Structure formats: structure tokens, C-alpha cells
């Protein structure tokens, strides 16, 4: 999908969609951004599925992209689910890419690659939450594959990259990796949130972001914020429900501080 600035407002100018991935456009509140909602019509992703998402926000435009619900990654007998996300934010534009969590069923296999390309003066707020199993049902992501890669480029230059690879290998198992104190320390979920401010130093957002994380602190929830190479990066480990709430709290704070937008996420986040 593509957005562009027309007559002083951001408009949808391009859309191509095909099952099992569709896009809805609910009416935002007057003071908020045009919003696109990704919908997986199949109810989740199965082994062998491939999803490609490409979003372009043209010069001076601003848009918010989310999803209708948590994405379920079902158990695999061998094939891998692949998700490719290309997010292009042109000169002085702004994109928020904040879908809800992805839930990994036991023995799921997921490879997801997200590339963000920022033009001069462009800004971005986005990230993702991963839940290690259907926790309420007592099922953990104990075997399978998770390969999650993020790349952020500014004017064609890589400024931040992050890769997470968790898999059965050399006789080990995913459950022991997640339980390892040097890895996830038994956490049921993890999350990363990235802010690329428009022509502002991310260090100026760090102290307030840490205060928001402290206010959202809960038992069993670990968090941290840092600034690196023009970006603010926040992380969480812990209980999925508490983590989701803390993630949303910081996202609301950052969109308000960075862009003067309402400190709230789309109503879908609260369903």
C-alpha cells in the first residue's frame, strides 16, 4: 500500500491485496492519522505460508499501520512460514507500524524479516511482540524455529540491525533456550519498540521513556531503553499481558512526544 500527501492531507494512493491478507481502513478520529489494518482472513499462518507486506509513505505524509488481532503461527510438520515486511518512509514523512503480538504455537516455524528505509527527515515508530506459546492453555513454544530480523536504514545506509534466532539444533531444544538465564530467563514473551525521531536526537527521549517503563513495571516484567545511532530502542521480557500493556503505554507516550499525536493506539488494541 502507498500513502501520499494530497491537498494537505495523507491519502491512500496505491493498494494491492490478495487473500489470505487483506487491508481495512477504519475512520480515525479527526486529530489522528489515517489507519490501515492488516487482516489475515485465514485466521492465522500455517506452515509454508508466505506473506509480503510493503508500505510506502510519501514525502510529508503520515500513516499508522496495525493488524486486526494477534497473529497466530500454527504448528508445522516441517515447512516454514515466511513474512517479509518492507517499510519505506520518504523525506519528512512519518510511519507507525504497530501490529499486535505474534503467538508461536508449539513446533511453529517462523522466519520474519522487516526492513525499514528512512529518507531525510523521516520518522518511524514500530516494533513487535512475540509470545512463546499459548500460555493460557498451558502450551509453550518448546520446539520449532523463530528467526526474526530487523533492519533500519537511513538514506540507504544501515544504521541498526538486529537478528534473533531460536531453533532446535545440536540435540538441544527451544524450551531450554528460553529458560536459560543468559537468553530469555523463562519469559513467556519478548518485545522490541523502535523510535526514529524526525530531526531530533533520540537521547532526548530516553529519560522520559524510562519513567514510562517504570510506571508500567510489574512483577516478572523486565525492561530497558537505550539510544543508538539515531534511534531509541526499548525492550521487554515477561508475562504477555503485562508486557503488552507496558508496550502500548510507551508507544502512546512516544507518538505524543515525537509527533504531538493523541497518546492512544487504535481501538483494536483494546479489544
Bulk shape = globular
Task: Tell me the β content.
Answer: 35-45%
Integer-rounded radius of gyration: 18 Å
Instruction: Calculate the terminal CA-CA distance, rounded to whole Å.
Output: 25 Å
Number of separate strands: 17
- Tell me roughly what share of residues is in helical segments: 10-25%
Largest sheet, in brief, is: 10 strands, mixed
Mean pLDDT: 95
Structural class: mainly beta
Question: What is the number of helical segments per DSSP (H or I, 4+ residues)?
Answer: 3
Note the run of SSEs as H and E.
EEEEEEEEEEEEEEHEHEEH
Unreliable runs: none
Overall description:
This protein is mainly beta and 271 residues long. It is 14% helix and 43% strand. The strands form two sheets. Strands 3, 4, 6, 7, 9, 10, 12, 15, 16 and 17 form a ten-stranded mixed sheet that branches. Strands 2-1-5-8-11-13-14 form a seven-stranded mixed sheet, with no helix packed on it. Helix 2 (203-215) runs antiparallel to helix 3. The protein is globular, with a radius of gyration of 18 Å.
Amino acid at each position: 500500500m502507498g500513502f501520499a500527501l494530497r491537498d494537505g492531507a495523507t491519502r491512500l494512493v496505491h493498494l494491492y491485496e490478495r487473500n489470505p491478507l487483506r487491508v481495512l481502513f477504519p475512520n480515525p478520529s479527526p486529530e489522528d492519522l489515517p489507519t490501515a489494518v492488516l487482516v489475515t482472513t485465514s485466521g492465522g499462518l500455517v506452515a509454508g505460508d508466505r506473506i509480503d507486506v510493503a508500505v510506502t509513505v510519501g514525502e510529508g505524509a503520515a500513516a499508522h499501520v496495525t493488524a486486526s488481532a494477534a497473529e497466530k503461527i500454527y504448528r508445522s510438520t516441517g515447512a516454514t512460514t515466511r513474512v517479509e515486511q518492507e517499510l519505506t518512509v520518504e523525506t519528512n514523512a512519518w510511519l507507525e507500524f504497530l501490529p499486535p503480538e505474534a503467538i508461536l504455537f508449539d513446533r511453529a516455524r517462523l522466519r520474519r524479516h522487516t526492513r525499514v528505509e528512512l529518507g531525510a527527515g523521516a520518522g518511524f515508530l514500530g516494533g513487535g511482540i512475540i509470545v512463546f506459546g499459548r500460555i493460557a492453555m498451558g502450551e509453550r513454544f518448546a520446539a520449532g524455529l523463530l528467526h526474526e530480523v530487523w533492519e533500519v536504514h537511513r538514506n540507504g545506509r544501515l544504521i541498526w540491525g538486529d537478528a534473533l534466532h531460536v531453533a532446535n539444533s545440536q540435540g538441544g531444544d527451544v524450551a531450554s533456550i528460553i529458560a536459560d538465564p543468559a537468553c530469555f530467563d523463562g519469559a513467556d514473551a519478548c518485545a522490541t519498540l523502535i523510535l526514529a525521531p524526525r530531526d531530533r536526537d533520540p537521547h532526548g527521549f530516553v529519560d522520559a521513556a524510562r519513567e514510562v517503563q517504570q510506571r508500567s513495571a510489574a512483577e516478572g516484567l523486565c525492561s530497558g531503553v537505550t539510544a543508538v545511532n539515531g534511534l531509541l530502542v526499548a525492550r521487554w521480557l515477561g508475562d504477555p499481558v503485562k508486557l503488552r500493556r507496558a508496550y502500548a503505554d510507551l508507544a502512546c507516550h512516544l507518538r505524543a512526544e515525537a509527533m504531538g499525536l493523541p497518546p492512544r493506539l487504535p481501538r483494536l488494541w483494546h479489544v
